[in-house]
C-alpha cells in the first residue's frame, strides 16, 4: 500500500531470518475488514509504503539462528506450518512486563515495504525476533485456522478483557462478518442459551446459524424498534445479558447499548476503523447497571488458543468452508473490494495463484 486508496504489486528482496526470527512462505494471507479501513484512509495515517496483511498461515522456509521451537516450546523445523501473532512485543516495557498488556509502547505494526517485512499479502513473511509464531497441530487445516483470521483471537481477547460468555447467557451479536461469526462460535462453545445475530446479508446469517446461532434478525426491512422487539420476544423481558458489537459501523453502538438488558454487558470489538462519536444515554449505565467495554490487539496467547480451537473444531464446524474467495497477490485490490462489499465471508491471498 503506497498511500491511501493505492495498492500496487512490488518486487522486493527475500531476506534471511535474523537470529531468533523466521522466514515463512505464506500459504494463506487473510484479508480483513481492518485492511479495507486502512486502505480507505479511515484508520488514519500509516508509515507508507507498507505491505498489508496481519493474518497469516505459512510454511517455515528458514529459521533464524537459535530457533528450535515455536513460541509455545513446540519443536519446529523447515516445512512446518505456522500461524503468527503479527505484533512484535519488546518484552521490556511497562505494558509488556508490568501491565501484561498488548500492544506495547515499542510495538511496530507495519514495516517499510522495502525492508524485511511480515505483511502477509506477500510470498514470504519475515518474522522478527519476538514475533510469536505457533506450529499448527498435525492434521490442522490451514483454511480452518485462517478462516476466522484475526477475528477469533480478537473475540477471545474481548471475552478475556470484558468477561467471558457463560452457560445460560443470552447473547446478541451485531454483525456477521468474521468477528461476529467468531463471537457466535465462541459463545456457542461456551454454552450460551441464546445467540441472536443481526446482519443484512442472508448468506452470512446462514453461516452464523451453522456456527451455533439460535436465531437471526435481518437489518433489511427492520428499524431499531422492530429489531429490539424481535430480540426481546426471543430472550424475554430482561433482555440479552451480553451484546457483542461486531458491525464495524458507528450507528451500531447506540443500538447495542440500548439493546443490552439490565445487569448486562456490551462488548465493543468492531469499531477499530470507525472514527467518530455516537450518542447514548449515560443514565442507562446507572439505571440498568450496564457494563460497556472494548478490546483489540489480541495477545500471543489468544492466537495460540484460536489456532488450537480451530484445529480441534474443524471437523465439527464448517470452518474451512468460510474461506470463500482466493486471490493472487496481484489481485489484492479485488480482495479488498470483496471484503468491503460484504460479498465474501473470508477472502484470502493465495500467493501460489
Ligand atoms: Zn514492550
Ligand atoms: Zn484482521
In words, what does this structure look like?
- The model has no long low-confidence stretch (mean pLDDT 95).
- The protein folds into two domains: 178 residues, Medium-chain alcohol dehydrogenases, catalytic domain (Quinone Oxidoreductase, Chain A, domain 1, Alpha-Beta Complex), CATH 3.90.180.10; 143 residues, NAD(P)-binding Rossmann-like Domain (Rossmann fold, 3-Layer(aba) Sandwich), CATH 3.40.50.720.
- Helices cover 29% and strands 18% of the residues.
- The chain has 353 residues and is an alpha/beta fold.
- The chain has eleven helices and 13 strands.
- Helix 1 packs across helix 11.
- The longest helix is centred in the C-terminal third of the chain and has 14 residues.
